[in-house]
Design a protein that fits this description.
The chain is of the alpha+beta class and about 170 residues long. Helix content is about 30%, strand content about 40%. It has 2 helices and 9 strands; from the N terminus they run ααβββββββββ. Strands 2, 4, 5, 7, 8 and 9 form a 6-stranded mixed β-sheet that branches. Strand 7 and strand 8 form a beta hairpin. Helix 1 packs antiparallel against helix 2. The longest helix has 27 residues. It is elongated and about 90 Å long. The termini are far apart.
């Protein structure tokens, strides 16, 4: 997708330059068509950022080492315009097991994910979405941002307690 992005923006620059030097309308028509497509893509991406609604909950607040928990993640689109392609990184207990979800949400619908979380280590962990990358269907513009920078966003806490063994 990055190669297509470079080719697209270089073609825009070539069309504008050719239009300025030659004065032919066709170059301006192609340039402004490309420009309006980028503007439309930006508008849809901003719409996705504005109307992104989610709910995340852990199945349990604490568990014993070696058992499993689950993160329930719901993404909703209550608007009449579809959301762009969204790539979500979800942090779980083990850094090697981080989950990556890629999806798009149609108008007036939603997506539900249940992510199993293994707890091989004891401790207190922050579980939830960390990074979002919003990309249009053409791959022209992408918005990566970290959910943890938002003032209202809180990751869910999971307490993993040590396994108690009966002496004997």
């Amino acid at each position: 997708m990055k190669l297509f992005r470079w080719v697209y923006y270089c073609a825009m620059a070539v069309m504008l330059t050719a239009g300025i030097y030659s004065g032919l309308r066709i170059f301006y028509i192609v340039f402004f068509t490309q420009f309006l497509m980028v503007a439309a893509v930006l508008a849809i991406n901003f719409w996705t950022v504005y109307s992104f609604k989610f709910k995340q909950e852990l199945s349990v607040k604490s568990c014993v080492k070696g058992t499993d928990a689950a993160l329930h993640l719901e993404i909703a689109n209550e608007k009449p315009i579809p959301l762009s392609l969204i790539e979500v990184k979800v942090q779980v207990v083990s850094l090697r097991e981080d989950v990556k979800l890629v999806f798009s949400v149609a108008p007036y619908s939603g997506k539900t994910f249940t992510i199993p979380i293994s707890a091989p280590y004891r401790g207190r962990y922050s579980i939830g979405m960390t990074k979002l990358k919003i990309t249009d269907i053409f791959g022209l513009v992408s918005f990566p941002f970290d959910m943890r920078w938002l003032s209202y966003y809180r990751m869910r806490e999971l307490l993993v307690m040590p396994k108690a063994e009966v002496p004997g």
